[in-house]
Amino acid sequence: MKILFQGDSITDAGRDRENCRDMGPGYPKFATELIREEYPDVDFDFINLGISGDQTKDLMVRWREDCINLQPDIVSILIGVNDTWHNAEAKTWVTAPVFEANYRYLLDWIKRCTKAKILILEPFLLPVPDKQIFHPDIDEKILITRKLAREYAAAFVPLDGLFAAACVETDMYHWSDDGVHPNENGSRFIGSLYAEAIYPIIEDVLSGK
């Protein structure tokens, strides 16, 4: 069973770009460990093609080669924070209609050209003081991601909401040093949420649904 991780630096996490089956030290590492433990008899092919700095427009450029041609059984996507961050200083945000069109392009291609089931993880922002300027834009993109998940996804992980709850109980810096990139604690947290969300999808693939 082929499972593809796609996204930006949160998914990339410093992986070995010369080996797409290297999960790196981020959440894909912890997710795949849990999945293998849960399904020790399943032959998984885990592929990580997250690229640091990517926005939705960058995924569009490489989508055929880095997703469609691979014909995954399951593809997960975590994208969106760079569509905000890279444009934050001048507040020249990627507009909501453009962000939605870009993301919808990716999802439509999966639906048209593969049999892959889709797991969407929403972009998130922890409440660190120097990133609060992001909220007017990224909050809108989070809502768009939720809308698209209802239309396209077999499962959805509401990371922004779940991290918000986690930061009530535990200091925000326990999860991330900069509010965007998870540290080991944050990566383990995402990995466990990912695994929990993907188990029912794996069951569907195994049963031929």
Could you characterize what this model shows?
The chain has 209 residues and is of the alpha/beta class. The chain has one domain: Rossmann fold. It is 49% helix and 11% strand. A 5-stranded parallel β-sheet has the order 2-1-3-4-5, with helices on both faces. Helix 3 runs parallel beside helix 5. The chain is globular, with a radius of gyration of 16 Å.
Compact description:
This protein has 209 residues and is α/β, with parallel strands linked by helices. Helix 3 runs parallel beside helix 5. The protein has eight helices and five strands.
List the helices and strands and how they pair.
Layout: E1 2-7, H1 9-12, H2 27-38, E2 45-48, H3 56-66, E3 74-78, H4 81-85, H5 96-113, E4 117-121, H6 135-152, E5 155-157, H7 159-169, H8 184-207
Features:
8 helices, 5 strands, 5-stranded parallel sheet, globular, 209 residues, alpha/beta, Rossmann fold
Rounded mean pLDDT is 96
Helix and strand pattern: EHHEHEHHEHEHH
Give the CATH class. Alpha Beta
Structural class estimated from helices and strands:
alpha/beta
**Considering the protein shown, what is the CATH homologous superfamily?**
SGNH hydrolase
Strand order, main sheet: write it out: 2-1-3-4-5
Which regions have little confidence, pLDDT < 50, spanning 5+ residues? none
Gross morphology: globular
Helix share bin: 40-55%
Number of helices: 8
Biggest sheet architecture: 5 strands, parallel
Alpha-carbon Rg, integer: 16 Å
Q: Might you state the CATH topology name? A: Rossmann fold
Terminal residue distance: 14 Å
